[in-house]
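Memo to structure team: turn this sequence into structure tokens by end of day. - J.P.
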Amino acid sequence: MAWTSLCQIDELTEGQGKFVQIGGFSLAVFLDAGRVFVLDNTCPHAGGDLAEGCIEEGCVVCPWHNWTFHLDSGQLRGAPGISVHTYKTRLYERENHAALVQADLPIF
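Reply from structure team:
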């Protein structure tokens, strides 16, 4: 695993997703209630773009068919056997610059 910078914190909007493609990963990055979450971007149901989804009660709602995934665990609400992968995140503070949003991504 390796900490990988995805974007600056000021590029995120509370309650909205940001699509980031990096190192072969397609990711959805969210800012919800001041916390940053990173999930795989593709909904397992029909391939919907989760970064385009809205946030409701700590979950992202897929814009295609309304499948709802918990931001912190990636679990589908009401169906614990279905999930999207989530990644550990951190903010990397920098002097005189906005903090970087980083995710702990696997190295291949």
